[in-house]
Design a protein that fits this description.
With 123 residues, the chain is of the alpha+beta class. The chain has one domain. It contains 5 helices and 4 strands; from the N terminus they run H-E-H-H-E-E-E-H-H. The protein has a 4-stranded mixed sheet, covered by helices on one side. Helix 3 packs antiparallel against helix 4. The two termini are 29 Å apart.
Length: 123
């Protein structure tokens, strides 16, 4: 008999297991993450709109107190406030839906499989 406590939503929210969209060279990116400029212009997915809705529907996990800007546009317009979102398993920055919609950035295949397995419902 295991003495481990069941994982609660709050525990998963505060400690997601995987990250997507933290592109290197962004202020909030990961040094080992993919380059945003290399990921744009991917083929449009058949379920693009459902994935976009999923990205926009994640729960706020943490706020950064700053603004996200479009680093691919020379004018660097403001995207909006910067925060992290989660579905309890994956974590992504608040600017990822913008880059996915505007530049059709390529997302991690494991993340896409996860979204589809959840039938586009973040939780």
């Amino acid at each position: 008999m295991s003495s481990a406590l069941p994982t609660t939503w709050t525990q998963r929210l505060m400690n997601p297991r995987k990250m997507v969209g933290f592109f290197r060279k962004l202020a909030h990116g990961q040094a080992t993450g993919p380059a945003l400029s290399d990921r744009r212009g991917a083929p449009l997915l058949d379920d693009h709109e459902q994935i976009l809705h999923y990205l926009r529907s994640g729960k706020v996990s943490a706020t950064a107190g700053g603004l996200a800007r479009d680093v691919l546009d020379p004018a660097q317009p403001i995207i909006g406030p910067l925060y992290s979102q989660t579905d309890g398993m994956w974590l992504w920055p608040s600017d990822l839906p913008y880059y996915f919609e505007k530049y059709n950035v390529l997302l991690d295949e494991a993340f896409l499989a996860h979204v589809r397995a959840r039938q586009y419902t973040p939780g």
